[in-house]
Amino acid sequence: MASDRPIILDGGMSNALEDRGHDLSDALWSARLLRDAPAEIAAVHRAYYEAGATVATTASYQASVGGFERYGVGRDEAERLITSSVRIAREVRDSLTDGRRLVAASVGPYGAVLADGSEYRGRYGVSATALRDFHGPRLELLISAGPDLLAVETIPDADEAAVLVELLAELDFPAWFSYSISGSHTRAGQPLADAFGVVAADQVIAVGINCCAPDDVQAAVETAVAVTGKPAVAYPNSGETWDAGGRRWTGDASDSASLASGWLDAGATYIGGCCRVGPEDIRSLAQTLDA
């Protein structure tokens, strides 16, 4: 199921903001700048579009009403900030006239708002009802702001995926769905063949992986396509490894652009980057795939 028309995604929001001089070390992460520096988020979206990205992914990955409230933000303002993530990206997109571009509203996992690394483990120890109560209102807020689609991303656990897919079906809104993986398993340890089977709903227009090692992408894309028959989405990290204890990235970056044509041939239609992948990396990726 090869495609000759890849859709180029953007790269990491947080690393691009850090490169612009912002400290994102608190629990709100990049979502804090929705309140404190929205123009900086807009500048990152513009940089990725200008580098060749077709899709801007909003700065809502770690944004939640509860998370903002813990920082003293009232509920009404928290809801406004979450929807503003879509508005900011749309305004940048609409200011550009050269070609069709999309805005994907980022929906991160429950573990992301805990800010304790559990987004890379899954198995949160909470019920499906609690996950539904967390995700449902946030999905509704983001959809109300008018994105083109949702980016349900970095999901570590097939159990959380089942809750999200049920909500997507009820809300009847298009989304891509990507797991965070390690090798041939989700971060929670489920085989990818089983995990991809959970998300084969009509509203899910592409299935795949993100926030993983580039070397894990090819086999995962092949599995996603074989299980679901849908286009795949693939946007790994730079190849560096996050050291949770030292709170820093270690190791060397790899050249994802050189691998991307293989992902395309395997069935990936949506291709981009995640953590530590910046605008120049996306420029290289776009040029490689255009060639």
UniProtKB/TrEMBL annotation:
Gene3D superfamilies: Homocysteine-binding-like domain
Species of the source: Kribbella steppae
KW Zinc (keyword) present: yes
One family name in Pfam for this protein: S-methyl_trans
Cofactor, free-text remark: Binds 1 zinc ion per subunit.
MF GO annotations: S-adenosylmethionine-homocysteine S-methyltransferase activity; zinc ion binding
Organism ancestry: Bacteria, Bacillati, Actinomycetota, Actinomycetes, Propionibacteriales
Binding site for Zn(2+): 211, 274-275
Record bears the keyword Acetylation: no
Keywords: Metal-binding, Methyltransferase, Transferase, Zinc
Gene Ontology biological process terms, A to Z: methionine biosynthetic process; methylation; S-methylmethionine cycle
UniProt protein name: Homocysteine S-methyltransferase
